[in-house]
Amino acid sequence: MLKIILSGLMLAVFFSISPSPCLAADQETVEAWCEMAYKAFEDENYTEAAKWFRQAAVEGYAEAQYGLAGLYENAQGLKQDYAEAANWYRKAAEQGHAGAQYSLGMLYDGGSGVKPDKVEAHKWFLKAAEQGDGDSQLAVARMYEKGEGVKQDYIQAAGWYQKAAEQGYSDAEFQLAQFYLEGMGVDKNLVKAYMWFSLALDDGMDSAKENLAAVEKKLTPDQISEGKRLATEMKKVDSD
To answer: In whole angstroms, what is the distance from residue 101 CA to residue 93 CA?
Structure first.
């Protein structure tokens, strides 16, 4: 009798997380599928991850659509297919998923699975950047700086580099320092150039060391002290 009860409980659990051919799954079930997918992914069982991501993705769950797209893009548990990756990234991106918006922008930027389109790339990068995604903020800044997919605008570039730099992105810190050094999109300010080169170096960009030394030669001791103070303050903001 106990075996029958246990068997019944196991079947109930199975059917509670397995997709019904007739009824749409509820939100809790779909989230459970997605969690199982990520657990399988962490265990490097990509085939299993793909199965669970797909089940949740077809129900319209953006996080699962994003996960499934990533497996297609990186050939993990599935045959590499950039067109399918773009398809699933788009579904998630249209629901406002910032990671998917960035990834779709990257596909358009490089022409993988879609026709290369800088304008479309900028559109999706911008959507994610406006949600605070640092990678996208950096991408938007670069496109404004180079005039790719959008009219060249150093002021916009500086603004987006600033946003990414404030999140600790060393590439953005370095570029913002260059802007302050040369007066591109911002007023020329060697103290702020020193500050951002210093932060870029602290965040792992070794190439900033030479630039920092060059700027330091142009500054007075008081200006160097101010640059260091600003850098310390910014580090405190980043850590909060």
So the answer is: 5
